[in-house]
Amino acid sequence: MHSNRILILSVFIVSTLISCAPAGTPTPPTPLQTAGPTGTPAPSDTSTPFPSTAIPTLTPAPTETAAPTAIPTVESLKARVTADLLSCRYGPGAYYLFLYGLRKDANIKLIGRTDGNNWVYVDGRNKCWLNANYVETAGDKSSLPVVYPGIAKLPQSPSYPPTTVRSATRNKNQVTVEWTDVYVSPGHREDENMQTYIIEVWRCEAGKMIFDPLGTNDTTITFIDEPGCSQPSHGRIFVQEKHGFAGPAEIPWPPLQ
Length: 257
Fold this sequence. Notes:
Blueprint: H1 2-19, E1 77-81, E2 85-89, E3 98-103, E4 107-114, E5 119-122, E6 128-131, E7 135-137, E8 146-148, E9 165-171, E10 174-179, E11 197-205, E12 208-216, E13 220-224, E14 234-241, E15 244-250
Parallel strand pairs: 4-8
Antiparallel strand pairs: 1-4, 1-7, 2-3, 4-5, 5-6, 9-10, 10-13, 11-12, 11-14, 14-15
């Protein structure tokens, strides 16, 4: 009986204290979970709550190749002839009319070039073209300005008309051009080796545009022109005699097949 009274009194005292506590007293915070005594991190959760979808590996975009640095253009370059005797011609190729010869070690000044073959333009009272393989240049010849076609011109023939292109056909990578004959008298020929017709073609080979001046005494010619160049191929024909060149007659270029 005595113990029951003590229990009832204890409950009454606790109830009284709770009811008398001031309003807004915060509830003690729940203690945070701490790491175990060894300090080892909890293992990662390796469970997969949803079906796993493989994330594709992104292939990095190819790095853009920097454009080649442009070579500054110069007005002229000094050069020296390395061949025993080097022909300087009216046009940038071996089939054009001969103007004069240059001996070994001759000092010259170059003022231009073509864009597509290795011929350079020589300054002087009689400007002419020579093969750059036979000169030693004080500088990069590709820094010279491109002057043909355009600035440097062929002398016009006073005696002969231009030819007329009859056809230009293609068989895969082979182009065949035919034209009408223009008779050049023996007295108007430079020599027995002169070619009556100069066929200038800008053609594509191995992805590169090549300037190829061809010579013939026939009225037809066949050459290679491939796909793969950013610029269109084209060409023209001159009639050549010892006083100059008649034309040009433009070639209607056959499309790629």
